[in-house]
User: Which sequence fits this backbone?
């Protein structure tokens, strides 16, 4: 079994919490926008929050400008 030690365990825990927080927000925004492809990609791919941040701050805003929000309304 791999022994990460105390520092490795703490770093792993912090990375896990960081990733879960961003993933939760990004999945929520993708679901609210009705974007199934983005939801699936965000659910499957783990990038320690990088892809999730890009979706939240870039791609979801691009979709909002086009008026492709859920049920034809912008959020």
Assistant:
């Amino acid at each position: 079994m791999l022994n990460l030690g105390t520092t490795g365990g703490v770093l792993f825990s912090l990375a896990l919490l960081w990733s879960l927080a961003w993933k939760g927000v990004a999945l929520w925004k993708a679901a609210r926008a009705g974007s199934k492809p983005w939801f699936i990609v965000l659910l499957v791919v783990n990038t320690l929050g990088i892809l999730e941040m890009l979706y939240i701050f870039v791609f979801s805003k691009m979709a909002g400008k086009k008026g492709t929000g859920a049920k034809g309304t912008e959020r």
About this structure: The helical segments are 5-33, 36-44, 50-65. The chain is about 70% helix and 0% strand. The longest helix spans residues 5-33.
